[in-house]
Amino acid sequence: MFNIENNGSLGKLAILTIMSGGEDEIALKRQGEKFGYRLYKGKVGSMDSAKIFAAVETAAKKEGLIDQRYREEHALYHSVFEAYSGMCRGQIGLGTVLRSAGLLFCIVRGTKLPGNDADGEWIAVALYGNMGAPIKGYEHEVLGLGINPI
Question: Phi-psi region for residue 140, left (φ > 0), alpha (ψ -120 to 50) or beta?
Fold first, then answer.
């Protein structure tokens, strides 16, 4: 079992949370919260990248992971952008090239390493799911991660 205290980080927690489910996901969230991390996991599907960005931003605001200050919104935007870029393998865009995505997303806010607040707070966004032609069976798995300081 993963132990965040011994080998954890903000990004690793985001990736492991998005890849887990059931009891494993609950255990990861509990471990993260024990060290002051705030997490949210959701899902979004679209052929429009703007809808993916909006879903993550809306969830982050609704769950209190960011507030209305520019620097917090900006850090989240760049984290989503980095995760999205990785997921799209640098080819940004969905609908304009007839691709769709069904994704899980995980937002984690906290220090880079458990209990080490010397660098302040950071925000990580992980995206995981399927992307491909908007025809069932023509998709493949994708994964992206973005991390930025708040």
Answer: beta
